[in-house]
Write a structure and sequence with these properties.
The complex is a heterodimer.
Chain A lengths: L1 H17 L7 H11 L1 H23 L38 H37 L1 H15 L3 H10 L6 H28 L2 H8 L4 H13 L1 H23 L12 H8 L8 H28 L6
Chain B lengths: L1 H27 L4 H7 L5 H11 L5 H13 L15 H36 L4 H15 L2 H15 L22 H7 L3 H38 L2 H8 L4 H39 L4 H10 L3 H29 L7
Classes of the chains: A mainly alpha, B mainly alpha.
Chain lengths: 311, 336
């Protein structure tokens, strides 16, 4: 470990003298690498398509996702689940609601849950991480013990137990549960990068110049500590989608399912999977694609922001 | 090494202590408190007061905390109120734990058995077909929800093809003797080979589903670690000394690359437990995962508490073992 670090430092030093793009910031060089990365392009395209779908869903969805199709409106064949037919390209679900419309509008809920959960988790993690990383000492030790305890419970179990506390089931329950699980992860990550910043030369220099502590924390330490956090946030979006789906699948989501959500659709499809697997497949494929999109973007971001890859 | 172990043990005690406070706070923060959870919202004030006195809720908070902890230490977490009404919560847990453990161990073994060799081979032939296929799979594998994969496997192999059983731990017709609660092991111990085979067949699909995420993670770590180590100076030195490829690979590359892999395997046990909740539900296995789902549905807090405490303890213990084995593999860590 020690040898690699030293080797790395020497390499970096050597590079910084000879590299043609000496004055280019990490962000700029990261963006240059991202633009050329096929992994990033595929991931970004997937996310772009789904964001577009979510934005346009209310306009393009052929039917009201909560409305039941009546006997005289559709053909139902031998079973109660309407097969694909005119006006209903994917058929209906087990309650006779238009499947395509539900999938299209489900993108809104799923993306909303993921983004809100990540933002809340990130916010909480920022507070914990900044407190621990900026003060150090016993504050750091105290905050980190809390984080350790939270991390010592498997995440889905923690999420389920948080969800169990709510009397009224709603999408909000899922958001809070998924968010709280992310807080210790963000907190720990940020604390590590902040501590590394504390010992760095530019922070020492700022302190020697008499810069105020708050300014040091927010202007000198935080911006430089954010790289790994951004990567984690992108990866967490993918996890949040999967975790939220898992919680909905366990029955933690909104009790009222007239507003569709993919995880919930997947959960309710399990009763009829033997006869109508398509009810599970369509929402599952959507979940996998979106999660994959965020994972790909996160992975390529990680590579791009890694100073080791700087050329 | 001894000091390191003692310090880690002290840390563990601290974590468990903090967890007990959190759980106690959690118990008290229930909407309406534990009394409402037991009596429902429409109980009369008199019956509420009587139950409060009976449960000791009228006593000072520190006394209550002490009695919660001292009872929890003896394994008394209260009585199940929903999953198996009337049974002590700990018993509910103990009855179901073997099923979950069996499934998790099987899944972890599957993941490790495939991920380490594949990761090693992928790193040695970097950019080859195996490398590319496994990288794509490990990316996709993380994005696939465990329960959907479980669905898919169940649909294809149990419903459509009918090769493997779709649910449960053993066929109901089999009257097997119970020794340990691990159905497969029981069959082997009592030499009821049919029962052991039947239990194994039942385990296959859920274990494969559960192993995808650990496989993806362990594969990636192994690959990265082997690539890292192959670049190290000591490998170059070994090569310069004229050691054969076999010796270099076994003694230098594999040994040193195993450090992060061991850690990852430990960390994955937590993920396995979470995944087991979902897999058990799809395959209708009555393990603790199902107890959690049911306990949540029916607001059975005693059962939920036992499961969370035990899961956390298992998790903390596994991490301790991982860190200790880490110190055994890497002598530099012992002196710190």
């Amino acid at each position: 470990m020690v040898t690699t670090q030293r080797k790395q430092r020497i390499d970096d030093l050597a590079e910084s003298g000879a590299a043609p793009d000496m004055g280019v910031s990490l962000a700029v060089s990261a963006w240059r690498r991202l633009r050329r990365s096929p992994v990033f392009l595929v991931g970004a395209t997937i996310i772009g398509v789904f964001v577009l779908v979510a934005a346009l869903a209310p306009f393009v969805a052929p039917h009201d996702p909560g409305a039941y199709m009546l006997e005289d409106q559709v053909s139902r064949a031998s079973n109660t689940i309407p097969p694909p037919q005119d006006g209903h390209p994917l058929g209906g679900d087990q309650y006779g609601r238009d499947l395509l419309s539900r999938i299209l509008l489900g993108s809104q809920q799923t993306l909303l849950v993921a983004v809100l959960a990540t933002v809340i988790g990130l916010g909480g993690g920022l507070i914990l991480g900044i407190t621990a990383g900026a003060f150090g000492g016993w504050v750091d030790a105290f905050v980190m013990r809390i984080v350790d305890v939270m991390l010592s419970v498997p995440s889905l179990l923690l999420a389920v137990s948080i969800g169990a506390l709510f009397v009224q089931q709603s999408q909000f329950t899922v958001i809070v549960a998924v968010a709280i699980v992310q807080i210790p992860i963000f907190g720990r990550l940020l604390r590590g990068t902040m501590l590394a910043q504390r010992a760095s030369d530019h922070v020492l220099a700022a302190r020697a110049l008499g810069v105020k502590p708050t300014a040091i924390v927010f202007r000198h330490m935080l911006p430089n500590a954010l790289g790994p956090v951004i990567v984690q946030a992108t990866l967490v979006l993918a996890l949040a989608i999967i975790d939220a789906a898992a919680l909905s699948f366990l029955g933690l989501g909104a009790a009222d399912d007239s507003t569709p959500e993919w995880g919930q659709m997947l959960g309710s499809a399990q009763q009829v999977i033997d006869s109508h697997p398509q009810l599970a497949f369509y929402p599952a494929i959507c979940i996998i694609l979106v999660a994959l999109g965020f994972t790909l973007v996160g992975e390529s971001l990680r590579d791009a922001l890694d100073p080791k890859n700087r050329r | 090494m001894l000091r390191y172990t003692v310090r880690r043990l002290a840390q563990m005690v601290l974590v468990v202590f903090a967890l007990s406070i959190l759980l106690f706070a959690w118990l008290r923060s229930l909407p309406g408190g534990p009394v409402s959870a037991l009596l429902g919202d429409r109980a009369t004030p008199e019956s509420r007061a009587a139950l409060e006195a009976q449960l000791g809720l009228d006593r000072p908070i520190l006394v209550q905390y002490w009695s919660f902890v001292s009872r929890a230490v003896t394994g008394d977490f209260g009585t199940s109120t929903g999953v198996q009404r009337g049974t002590p919560a700990l018993e509910v847990f103990l009855q179901r734990f073997p099923a979950t453990l069996e499934l998790s161990i099987m899944a972890l073994l599957l993941a490790v058995a495939f991920a380490i060799p594949v990761g090693y081979l992928a790193a040695r032939r970097r950019g080859g077909w195996l490398d590319n296929v496994s990288i794509v799979w490990s990316l996709v594998g993380v994005a696939v929800p465990v329960f959907f994969l479980a669905f898919l496997l169940k649909y294809v192999f149990a419903v459509e093809l009918g090769w493997l059983p779709a649910s449960g731990r053993q066929d109901t017709g089999i009257d097997a003797t119970r020794v340990t609660g691990f159905f497969m092991l029981d069959g082997v111990l009592t030499r009821e080979w049919d029962a052991a085979w039947n239990a194994f067949v039942h385990l296959l699909l859920p274990a494969v589903a559960l192993s995808t995420i650990p496989f993806a993670v362990i594969f990636r770590i192994t690959r990265a670690a082997v690539l890292d180590v192959m670049d190290e100076d000591y490998v170059r030195t070994a090569r310069a000394k004229g050691l054969t490829g076999m010796v270099i690979r076994r003694r230098h590359v594999l040994h040193n690359a195993m450090l992060p892999v061991v850690t990852t395997i430990g960390l994955q046990t937590g993920a396995l437990l979470a995944g087991a909740i979902l897999t058990e539900r799809v395959f209708n296995i009555s393990g603790i995962g199902q107890a959690v789902a049911l306990g949540f549905e029916r607001k059975d807090f005693p059962v939920l508490q036992v499961v969370i405490v035990s899961a956390a303890m298992v998790y903390v213990l596994v991490n301790l073992v991982v860190d200790l084995s880490y110190a055994l593999i890497d002598p530099r860590l012992r002196t710190r």
